[in-house]
Structures are given as structure tokens and as C-alpha cells.
Structure to design on (131 residues):
DNA sequence: AGCCTGACTTTGT
DNA sequence: GACAAAGCCAGGC
């Protein structure tokens, strides 16, 4: 993320995000959406990619998370999993257990690197933000 | 401009 | 169901 046009965002509604989709970089859009994930809920890289209109570019969402930890305000990257609910990105946190601990702190149970009841707490931006 | 790299996903075998 | 292959595309070099 070399672009400096990033601005701090207050709470934004879906329409505002919709509007920003065209004027902000893909990475920034990813961070915007990720920040809207409620506590105790999770989503997937693919869902975010799809919501941003990039269809199959879920890899980019994950790639964007590489820089998530240096973003201001912080991006809750631990709430983003792969489509099976597995904590595939945990090695990119300070310690391999950090991601799981953060999730469990929010009431999300994790076993074998996979979120339990993933389909129940799944937060789909395409649905949740389309009001 | 071109090549490489992915915190992914889908599809085919 | 496990495995491989192929899309995907922004960023860094």
C-alpha cells in the first residue's frame, strides 16, 4: 500500500462503502469491509472478494491482509478465514496461536485450526451490507 | 513492460 | 474424498 490517500474512517454504511469502491484501491476496500465484521462473527476471503466485485480474486484479499497489521485504524484480520473456516492466516500474526486466541476472546470457538459452527457465525458482506 | 508471488477458490481427475 | 491445475490480479522488483 504505497498510496497515501488512505483516510481514517468513522463508521460507514453500506452505501458509503459502495460509493468508495470505485475511488479507493482494492486493498483499502478490503480493509473497509473487514473492519465492519462484527465481534464474534467471521467471513471468508472469497466473500469479501465477491462483495468487492472481484469475483475469484480471493487471493488478493488474503494478500491484502499481509499489510493489515500496519493499518490505522486496525483491521481485524483474525475474523477473515478461508471458505472452510480454517485459520489459514494464523502464521502471519505475532504467534501462531494469536489468531485463535483473539477469536476465542470474542466468543468464537476454534478447534483444529477451524472455527466451529462456521456457517452459523458466517458474516456475508454481500447480504449484511445490502440493506 | 514483464515476471513473480501469494492469509484463496473452483473445477476436474 | 484427496490431489492437481488453473483462474484470479495488485504490488513489488
Amino acid at each position: 500500500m504505497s498510496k497515501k490517500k488512505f483516510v481514517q474512517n468513522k463508521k460507514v454504511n453500506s452505501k458509503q462503502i459502495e460509493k468508495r469502491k470505485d475511488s479507493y484501491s482494492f486493498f483499502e476496500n478490503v480493509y473497509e469491509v473487514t473492519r465492519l465484521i462484527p465481534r464474534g462473527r467471521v467471513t471468508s476471503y472469497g466473500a469479501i472478494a465477491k462483495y468487492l466485485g472481484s469475483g475469484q480474486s480471493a487471493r488478493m484479499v488474503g494478500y491484502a491482509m499481509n499489510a493489515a497489521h500496519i493499518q490505522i485504524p486496525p483491521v481485524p484480520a483474525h475474523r477473515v478465514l478461508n471458505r472452510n473456516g480454517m485459520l489459514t492466516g494464523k502464521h502471519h500474526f505475532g504467534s501462531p496461536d494469536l489468531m485463535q486466541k483473539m477469536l476465542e476472546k470474542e466468543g468464537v470457538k476454534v478447534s483444529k485450526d477451524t472455527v466451529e459452527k462456521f456457517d452459523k457465525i458466517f458474516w456475508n458482506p454481500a447480504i449484511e451490507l445490502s440493506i
Remarks:
- The longest strand of chain A covers residues 43-44.
